[in-house]
Amino acid sequence: MTKMYYNGDINEAVLQGKKIAVIGYGSQGHAHAQNLKESGFDVVVGVRAGKSFDQAVEDGLQAASVKEAAELADVVMILLPDERQKAVYEAEIKPYLTAGKALVFAHGFNIHFDQIVPPADVDVFLVAPKGPGHLVRRTYESGAGVPALFAVYQDATGQAKDVALAYAKAIGSARAGVLETTFKEETETDLFGEQAVLCGGLTALVKAGFETLVEAGYQPELAYFETMHELKLIVDLMYEGGMTGMRYSISDTAEWGDFVSGPRVVDAATKERMKDILTDIQQGKFAKEWIQENENDRPNYRRIKEDETTHQIEEVGAKLREMMPFVQATKSPKKEVVASGTN
Ligand SMILES: NC(=O)C1=CN([C@@H]2O[C@H](COP(=O)(O)OP(=O)(O)OC[C@H]3O[C@@H](n4cnc5c(N)ncnc54)[C@H](OP(=O)(O)O)[C@@H]3O)[C@@H](O)[C@H]2O)C=CC1
Ligand SMILES: CC[C@](O)(C(C)=O)C(=O)O
Ligand SMILES: [Mg+2]
Ligand SMILES: [Mg+2]
Asked: Name one GO molecular function term (predicted).
């Protein structure tokens, strides 16, 4: 059985007295910075002037430029978009990464795919929450937490593992469970999960279901309730009680349909394509293409995002959600809905 770390297993004193720079104030950044501060740690947010900077100040945090924060800090957590990290690291973080500091990530992409090569005399580790940043914050506030992985890539001080665990505890993850991995395992499984299941697989499944109903002449609003809105209610049951728990609450008719029709939708051929996706990730093909897409200023990303944002399910859903005030849109310093643009 994998060793899981919980609050009682972790001594956070090793992080006390250290200055922690959270670089970036987006989805993960705002959650880490606020959770760390409320857990009693000394945080500075490193951001460029603009919306994120203003938001960090409004949220009562110390804010500074990336350079200033990197210089001030003992522990530098990089929570910028993966594709921007290399440039910002080279220009604004590396010069201030003196011996004995810690360079930290929430995803191993840039280390694993050799985009960032840190100096040998610093600690390098990751603390990767297994959930969206807005939920890292929301669960922390409610007394719960999002599980996290940690991995040590370089241990220059002999303390990297203890500091990583203390960090995971400080953001609330050790309330849920923290487990050790490697940069390779975290990077490959995270990319696979988000592409094949959590984001790519799920949105493709929902769109295909919605389109099937609408093309067959059913009302789009009904199709939205059936294939998107109710999904959360079903997934909540799986979150709480696994598939068995969910199946306890659905009708036997639904359960029988689940058993016989589910495998017609996701079959052996789907699993073969999942394996192809995993191979592309493992061999670095996905990373190479994503880096190239950014170097080309994201022509395909912009085009696909425009199509996705204007899909009928999004237009119908937006109107229906306006009528359900209890369904809150994510409020964040990140991700206002943009049809194009790089963030
Ligand atoms: N999103 C998530 O829930 C998860 C993310 N991760 C990992 O966490 C890391 C951060 O991801 P995420 O939170 O999604 O990132 P975001 O896209 O939310 O980061 C946006 C932040 O980065 C800032 N930023 C962007 N470019 C620059 C720049 N050139 N200089 C300074 N600041 C800049 C933005 O500032 P401005 O407002 O000025 O543009 C904003 O504050 C990634 O490694 C990701 O893989 C891991 C687990 C889950
Ligand atoms: C599922 C997407 C994710 O990996 C995450 C929220 O964990 C991400 O990179 O945002
Ligand atoms: Mg993830
Ligand atoms: Mg990810």
From this structure: ketol-acid reductoisomerase activity
